[in-house]
Amino acid sequence: MSAGYNFAYLDEQTKRMIRRAILKAVAIPGYQVPFAGREMPLPYGWGTGGIQVTASVIGPEDTLKVIDQGADDTTNAVSIRKFFARTAGVRTTTRTTEASIIQTRHRIPETPLKAGQIIVFQVPIPEPLRWLEPREVLTRRMHALGDYGAMHLKLYEDIAHFGRITTAYDYPTLVNARYLMAPSPIPRLDNPKLDRSAALQLFGAGREKRIYALPPHTTVKSLDFEDHPFRVEGWSQPCARCGTRDSYLDEIVIDDRGGRRFVCSDTDYCDGRLAAEARPS
Amino acid sequence: MYVAVKGGEAAIDAAHELLARDRRGDPAAPELSLPQIESQLRLAVDRVMAEGGLYDRRLAALAVKQAAGDLVEAIFLLRAYRTTLPRLAVSLPLETAGMAIARRISAIYKDVPGGQFLGPTFDYTHRLLDFALAEEGSAPTASSVAEDAPNAPLAPVTALLEAEGLVAPEQADPQTPVGDITREPPTYPAERDVRLQTLARGDEGFLLALAYSTQRGYGRNHPFAGEIRSGMVAVEILPEELGFPIAIGEIELTECQMVNQFKGSAREPPQFTRGYGLAFGRSERKAMSMALIDRALRAAEFEEEANAPAQDEEFVLSHADNVEASGFVQHLKLPHYVDFQAELDIIRRLRREDQRREAAE
Predict the structure, then answer these.
(1) Is the CB of B8 less than 8 angstroms away from the CB of A187?
(2) CA of B134: how far to CAs of B130, B131, B138, B348, in Å?
(3) A251 near A279, Cβ under 8 Å?
């Protein structure tokens, strides 16, 4: 563990301030709670919000998993895992089932989360209405009034132009039938995993200094219309490694003649399936 | 202890080794020392302190060295260090009228009580490369420099206008606690104290460009440089157990008070108004830019039309911080292949549908 710094880097006053924000966020699911985010030794936009949330809830008994794009071995996931191994000395893992805290960027693990687990999302832009109205003064008012017509209009325009909703990630959701929430840039295939999850889901936006949360079993509805219900598109082929048909796949370019291979983006899920097959039954 | 190790880790370690080697450069050239940076790159140190929000010349010099001269990176290093420091005390408001003047100029009077002092400045130098500096060992001789800077406190030039009632008075309300952008999240609309704090740590280049835009007609506010002063100012705290203020040190500051024309509103008579800039060290360009933007952001207060970028509080304040901006712009380097895959999928589907429609027609 690093000498000269507090457990998990942040001082205890800061952690207490962040925990208060988290408690408020849990009490009002989907509501963006402003918090006095600190400068972290990692750059803004690289997970400072998630890191602060994780640092505030982690204890010496925890086991941490960090993924980026679903994978444990992407450079930024390695860097953040190393940060906590160094400043908190906690056990780390790549197994979804073994982790008590999972910090993620852009994905939700394929393996369903269990009660008692915490998943921490890194959020670049917490405001789902930002692209429709850049001013915070106005978006906060829209949330207060539950005035989400602009978002429905945007989705309707998509359908009118393209025959479908073209938002592929960070697909807007309505939490507990009250607050519009940005699920962070997860692909929309992951959206159903948010709904009534048994795990506590925390969202940290460091640069924008906002925290929001989904307590376990909160309803999370992806916005849609009666005649255009929300749906996720699957792949035409299974994972080339483990053969699953129900996970999010990365497209790997394997040569310069247009060759493609599709494999699971969730590396732990893929490895787990292969290991189960290899085990003699 | 079990720590998962995979491919990325070795690559990161190797990259950081390369960076260290790169930073040192040619080992045949002597290594830079912190005192060299502190004294000979002092304006770089000043900027890093100002935008890093920490007055410590030695640590700022270390940051400049560690960042290989990349000042935004150095500012980030200092900022990340600053945030870990405990808050021991809050100082009394600084008395810049009591500044030990190194430089003081006013553009609105030919002469001002107490006098004008050019001090060390690039102004009026001819920007010709000085090849003599390329040779080492050429120390300047200081024989012609008079050491006659004033010792007595010098009232700000704007006090002359205040005495005539020609400039809008600015009185701090001692009952209202001052905001603290390092401890409270930003909310809008913001008060002037929070605006000034944000501008003081804001990126010099961003503030400069915005200030320039007001001069070119995007939110024009008719400024005059009422006064610019640089020098050392004592920092005092008031320990409760003592009951009287004690000086704990001094810091170098540059202060700029812009005086702006104002035609009056429904409530206010025609008078001059002010924009204020303050920065650590001799960051004069920064202090002047800050003063112009401070005035631009007071548009609502003076019932002025506000439709230029420099007058838009949320726009200016939420984009001024270069630690935030640099991080978020550069986060595009991180893998985004999951979202890109989702976009690819949508584009392919839309194109397939287009082709099917065309085939059907």
Answers:
(1) no
(2) 8, 5, 9, 60
(3) no
CB contact under 8 A, A73 and B6: yes
Rounded to two decimals, the ipTM of the complex is 0.85
Q: CB-CB: which of B80, B186, B342 is closest to A39?
A: B80
The secondary structure of chain A, three-state, reads: CCCCCECCECCHHHHHHHHHHHHHHHHCCCCCEECCCCCCCCCCCCCHHHHHHHHHHCCCCCEEEEEECCECCCHHHHHHHHHHHHHCCCEECCCHHHCCEEEEECCCCCCCCCCCCEEEEECCCCCCCCCCCCCHHHHHHHHHHCCCHHHHHHHHHHHHHHCCCCCCECCCEEECCCEEECCCCCEHHHHHHHCCCCCEEEEEECCCCEEEEECCCCCEEECCECCECCCCCCCCCCCCCCCCCCCCEEEEECCCCCCEEEEECCHHHHHHHHHHHHCCC
Contacts of B335 in chain A (CB under 8 A): 68-69, 74-76
Does residue B19 sit at the A interface (CB-CB below 8 Å)? Answer: no
Prediction pTM value:
0.90
Inter-chain touch B342–A187, beta carbons under 8 Å: yes
B40-83 pLDDT tens trace: 999 999 999 999 999 999 999 999 999 999 999 999 999 999 99
CB contact under 8 A, B76 and A43: yes
Q: Residue B360 — very low, low, confident or very high, per pLDDT cuts 50/70/90? A: confident
**Chain A interface includes B79 (CB < 8 A):** yes
Chain A residues whose CB is inside 8 A of the B189 CB are: 137
How many residue pairs from chains A and B have C-beta atoms closer than 8 A? 149
What is the tens place of the pLDDT at every residue in B143-199? 555 566 667 788 899 999 998 889 988 888 888 888 999 989 988 999 999 999 999
- Pair A30, A212: CB distance under 8 Å: yes
